[in-house]
Design goal:
Elements: H1 3-18, H2 34-51, H3 57-70, H4 73-80, E1 92-96, H5 106-114, E2 118-122, H6 130-141, E3 149-151, E4 161-165, H7 168-177, E5 183-186, E6 190-194, H8 201-212, E7 222-228, H9 234-240, H10 250-265, E8 270-272, E9 277-280, E10 290-296, H11 299-308, E11 313-318, H12 344-349
Helix pairs in contact: 1-3, 1-6, 8-9
């Protein structure tokens, strides 16, 4: 199966996903296999929260729409053309997927198939239904994919390489267990924003998307702010007020109440707007419903800090630092924006 046939298949999947952006999706009669898959996927989106309480309908639709935007023929060709992929003997690549946000492992799944390898997939217990459904749709489009996709519930066996995503704790287990195979092992990462105080209201509102999307559970969510000394937080709080409805979601509200209580019992000084706390802290990883902040004297010191801590960071949002992600864009990565800045496709083609 050559790469152009796979690009065509995934672009059809993108068109299928594009139908489910809104709460009232409209079936596109030009999308193949809609009669078999449309109603079932719509039902799956609506009940996803019963499988994972954080996978609200709104959050799942956002993830689905993001992949619909990514899976176009133009994007797929732009991503893959530089690699010059040719037909090759396939290797079996074990994928140990995370489940913190909907379809978080889809890029690894896509990369393995596009590289000509077979995906042996161990799903997270927190995200067990969405990817298998899309795999069935792909196989309906192109039955040849059935030889390249396998899901397993037990330990990975008979694999040639591994891509595993987990916490800092599980990564130590992964590194030991997969020590004899080529591997990419992903650990905890966080994202930061470096502010100047001159950001527009629209940029600060967009920053709220980077903070609150997926309730802050993703490694691309901003969990830490670097701000200049004397920074006025009022414009930020005013802009973030647009996201106040997040507190209506019980799981988020419970985290807000709990983490705020822990901070206050420890006599930490907090900034609080009723649905988000800001705490001065040098760490990068803040709990749900909280964002850490740290003052800086000059931008150069922040650039050095970010460079020194690069292995802990996923995204940097800023107007001040070259190569930063735009405000509101952290959860809209392109196909060529690799997790941890590790070129997954290059790794897969080297097997």
């Amino acid at each position: 199966m050559d790469v152009q046939h796979k690009i065509k298949s995934f672009s059809i999947l993108g068109r299928f996903l594009d139908q489910f952006r809104s709460e009232n999706p409209v079936k596109n009669q030009d999308v193949p296999f809609n009669d078999d898959f449309f109603d079932k996927f719509e039902s799956l989106i609506r009940i996803s929260q019963s499988y994972n309480g954080w996978f609200t309908e709104d959050q799942v639709r956002f993830a689905v729409a993001s992949w619909a935007d990514a899976l176009t023929e133009d994007n797929l060709n732009k991503w893959l053309t530089p690699y010059g992929i040719e037909e090759r003997n396939k290797e079996t690549v074990g994928l140990v997927l995370a489940g913190n946000i909907p379809l978080v492992g889809f890029h690894d799944f896509l990369s393995v198939l596009m590289s000509g390898n077979k995906a042996l997939i161990k799903l997270s217990s927190n995200d067990q239904v969405l990817l298998p459904f899309l795999a069935k749709y792909l196989i309906a489009i192109n039955p040849d994919f059935s030889d390249y996709i396998e899901f397993t519930e037990g330990r990975l066996q008979d694999y040639d390489a591994v891509i595993a995503t987990g916490s800092n704790n599980t990564s130590r287990y992964f590194e030991y267990y997969f020590r004899d195979k080529p591997s990419i092992i992903r650990k905890n990462r966080n994202s930061v924003a470096v502010l100047s105080g001159d950001e527009s209201e629209s940029q600060l509102v967009a920053l709220g998307e980077d903070i609150f999307r997926y309730f802050g559970l993703g490694c691309r969510n901003v969990s830490k702010l670097f701000v200049p000394k004397g920074y006025d937080f009022q414009p930020l709080f005013k802009a973030l007020y647009e996201y106040r409805d997040v507190i209506e979601y019980k799981k988020y509200a419970n985290n807000y109440d709990y983490n705020k209580a822990v901070f206050l019992m420890s006599n930490f000084q907090l900034l609080d707007n009723g649905f988000l706390t800001l705490k001065e802290d040098t760490a990068y990883s803040s709990p749900i419903s909280s964002v850490f902040y740290e003052y800086y004297d000059n931008v150069e010191s922040v650039v050095k800090r970010i460079s020194d801590d690069a292995e802990q960071l996923q995204c940097v949002v800023s107007n001040l630092i070259d190569g930063s992600v735009g405000f509101g864009q952290t959860q809209k990565p392109q196909l060529w924006d690799y997790a941890d800045n590790v070129d997954t496709m290059k790794f897969l083609l080297s097997l």
